[in-house]
Structure formats: C-alpha cells, structure tokens
Amino acid sequence: MSEHGFPPVFPERFNMADYFLDARIREGRGARTAVKVGDASWTYAEVQSLANRARFALGSRGIDLEDRVLLLLPDGIEFAVAWFGILKAGAVFCMGNPLAPEADLEHLLGYTRCRAVIAHASVLDRLVPALAKHPRCRARFVVAEKDAAIPEGFVRWDDALAKEPDRTDNADTSRDDVAGWLFTSGTTGKPKGAVHFHHDFPYNTECYPTKVLGLREDDVFLSVSRLFFGYATGTNLMFPFRFGGTAVFFPDKPTPERIFEHVEKHGVTVLSNVPAMIRQMCDHDASSRTAMKTLRMCLSAGEALPPQLYDRWRAHGWCEILDGIGSAELFHIYISNYPGHVKPASLGKLVPGYDARIVGAEGQTLSDGEVGRLWVKGDSAALGYFGDQEKSKATFVGGDWVVSADLFRRDADGYYFYSGRGDDILKVRGMFVSPLEIEDCLASHPAIADCCVVAGLDDEQMTVPKAVVVLRDGHVGDDTMIASIQEHAKTRLARYKFPRIVRFVASLPRNDRGKVLRRELESA
Fold first, then answer.
1. 138, 268, 296, 378: which is deepest, by most CB within 10 A?
2. What is the CATH number of the domain that holds 231?
C-alpha cells in the first residue's frame, strides 16, 4: 500500500493474506493473541503457521489460482485458518451458513462450482447427499473430533494440516485477482455472489475502521453475526487482524446471555451487533445489572436502528451505538455514525473514500430532504454478480457507481436517513409511505417487542399498511390491543399511515443474516 495520500492505493502484485496476517508478523506482533475461543487462544504466529499448512493442504489436492472453496464452518479457529489458507493458495473463498438445509447447500455447491469444501462434522448429514449431485467438488475436508467417523472421500482437516510444512510463500496474486465472494441477503430470492478482488477488502479497511472507528491494537472484538456473513468477516476477522487486536469467536447460537458473558470474560471493547439482538439485550432480565464497562463502541448494521431502541440501550449506561449501512456489493460499511457524533435515527455520514448520491426516478440527483435511491461509489465495489449479467448491469453502472435498492434522504448536515427499500415502499391513498416510519412509531408502544410493516389489502382490496407484531410477555393480542396500537400510530403519524390491519405472531421470520423476510409476512 502507498505510504502517502488517501484513498489508499495497493501494489500491483498483492495478496490480502499478507496485508491482514503476514504483515503483523513482520511488525513484531507474532506473540500477540490473535484469536480466543473459550479458554483457548492462538497467537498471530500460530495462526500464520496453521494458515501456511492450510495453503499446502489445499494445493496438494489440486486447488490452484481462482478455484473456489466453500466454507461451511461455525465461528472458530478453523474458520480463520481456512480463510487465510484459501487466500494464501490464490483460491477464492465462498462462505455458507453451516446450519443451512440440504436444498440450500445443494444450491451453493452448484452455484459456486466449488472445487473444494471445508465443512464441520455437524453439516455432513445435509452435505453428503448434496455432494452426490456435484462430483466437481473433489477436495473434501471435515472439521471433526479425532476419533469421529469420517465419510468416504473426506479428509479430517487437522490431519491434512499436520502433514504439511508451516512455511510458505503466498500465491503470486494481483490486487485485481478475485479473492472472494460475498453473498447478498437473499430476502426476496436466492442470494447472489458479489465477486470481489484482493484489494477490495483492504480498501474498505483503510477507510472505515481506520478513519471512522479508530480501531487499535489493544481492542478486543466480538460479533453477534456469524463469520460467514461479510459484516462479521470484516468486523470480527479482517479488522482485528489488520490492527493487531484480538478476535473472540464462539460457535454456538448468539443469545443475550452469551454476549454479556463474553464481554465480561474477555474484556471486549468492540461489539458488532444487529438491531434484533440489541432489542433482546435491552429486554433481558440481566440488562439492569450488566455494565459492559469495557465496551468503547457498539456497531450496528443489517437494518436501520430505531431511535427508541438506541435510547433504551443508552439508558442502561452502555456505550453509544454507531449505526451504519454497508452491502455485499461494496464489502462493508460506507455510511456510518462517528464516535461522539451520533445522530439517532440516522445511519450517519459518508465514510472517507466513498461518495454517494440520492437519485430520483429520472436519474437526477435530488436535493437534501428529498427521498430517492442511494447510489454509492468506492474502490471496494465488486466486479458484479456471478451468473447474473442483467442484474449486474442494473446495479454496477458507469464503471463507478453501485445502485442500491435502498431509499434514502440526506439532511443539511450530511446525515443519511433510511426510508426503506424501493420494492418495500407502500402506496396508500395515492401517497408513498415508508414502512420504516410506521415501524419506528410502533416500536415506542409499551406492549410491542418487535414489529414489521408490510402491504396488506383491506375489504375493498386496496393497499393499506399491515403491522405484524410480536408482543412483550404479559400482553394479549386481542381487539383491545389492536385498537391501542392503532390509536398509538394515529396520534403520532399522519392518519393515512396508521396500520389498518394488525396481526400477532410469536416471532418475525428472519434470514441467516438477521433481516426480516418481509415477503413471508404479506400473507400472515
């Protein structure tokens, strides 16, 4: 990387495993703790040694430049080692949810056309039948206990690494060689793979965590989102390794209890969070006696954070939340609130190194205060979506701009406010209505724990706002509660915006990235 100027420029011959990992050894940080899982820990030098072995384990089985490798692993040291090993081999990482059903695994295998898979033993009951239809994937590794039975054709990951040398040069890759795929959220269809180069991930790292967050060597990181999701791959793997910090992994399901426990046990300073978990943490019985004093920042992404929820979090005496927005198409956060300058309800200001426009229906740049589609520009933009030229041409335009599906407005101070997705916006009585505005209003109702607003049809088959509501314990979803919720909205919003239909559910359906599956709720 160039030592002068900004935005960053990277050398033509470049491998991001060197940028994120090997450079820490050259800096003399090899003895620092890189990863903690429970009571176990690994130094930077130990992670590098294991990653070098992983590079050879892949190479000895024919994995070469640009070959795609599918990771199906829970959060743990194996994930980090495999991820770096793939990069060192010059191959391409693709990351899937290890809890995905067999049909989704079969889709991933076919879509990625991977030549290798590295999976946890808990995935095998769904993976093995799916692999029978995809013989192209010939290098098959499994993370399993030493004495566990291994299916035919698989190699135990630890055994494969133990046979390889721990010293190696990285593959001779270019900054513009493909390094990995990041999958879109897939809230309205199958996720698409955004194809990223080696320089994309370091570019954002030099912009967002460096210029906005001010991350440090003494930071300890923890993530609610799992590592296979690009948000967490950034905040809980790439960013800690770039700054020489410590990443805390845990493989089991995130719960408020687990988050509270790990923050206290490990002295976590940077927590990557999502609104759904922020709400659960605020609601939890232990919230009133949990100080989380070591936290110096909490990040939030995935969906906009309601201002009432931000206030509830702060009322516990916990650190400020830095809400922001990023995407698979640009790798990570490009608009964010800054430490000490949070404006609740907003997603913050532009991250240095990025530009943005609010664009109207005719392609015109809109003035502050007007709602339009968000266009973003930055050198972490993906090449396109694999296997979808038409969608790529519609999203990646002009060689520079990424056209988001999100609707935004910007205020006079340069803060951006989310107004919903273009395909989610409602038209009620001839006027456009943002579901988010109604959701933020309903979130302040004392009986509502969670809610989502989608399009509904009234008795005359006209579009009206429909609220799908999760009630707090002790409250009953009856006609009296419906009237209370509607009156709450009528007194705080323009009357045409109140939810004409209210439905009660035990929980909102979410995808593996925590986003609400709105389409499923339209028929609720």
1. 378
2. 3.40.50.980
Whether 57 and 169 share a structural domain? yes
Q: Is 197 a domain residue?
A: no
Burial 402-436 (b: 16+ CB within 10 A, else e): bbbbbbbbbeeeebbbbbbbeebbbebeeeebbbb
Pairing of strands 246-249, 33-37: parallel
Q: Which of 51, 53, 45 is nearest to 16 (CA)?
A: 51
For residues 291 and 391, what is the distance between their CA atoms, to the nearest angstrom? Answer: 46
Question: Which residue, among 18, 171, 28, has the nearest Cα to 91 in the 3D structure?
Answer: 171
CA 97 to CA 101: how far, in whole Å? 9
Residues 141 and 255 reside in one and the same domain: no
Does the pTM surpass 0.90? The reply is no
Looking at the structure, do residues 97 and 167 belong to the same domain, yes or no? yes
For 46-102, the DSSP string reads HHHHHHHHHHHHHHTTT--TT-EEEEE--SSHHHHHHHHHHHHTT-EEEE--TT--H
Containing structural domain, residue 474? 426-521
pLDDT in tens, 100-141: 999 999 999 999 999 999 999 999 999 999 999 998 999 999
Other residues' Cβ atoms within 10 Å of the Cβ of residue 243: 21
Burial of 246 (0-12, 13-18, 19+ CB in 10 A): buried
Q: Which two tokens stand for residue 358?
A: 């609010």
Q: Is 439 in contact with 424 (CB distance < 8 Å)?
A: no
Of 489 and 461, more confident = 489
The alpha carbon of residue 293 and the mean position of all alpha carbons in its chain are separated, in whole angstroms, by 25
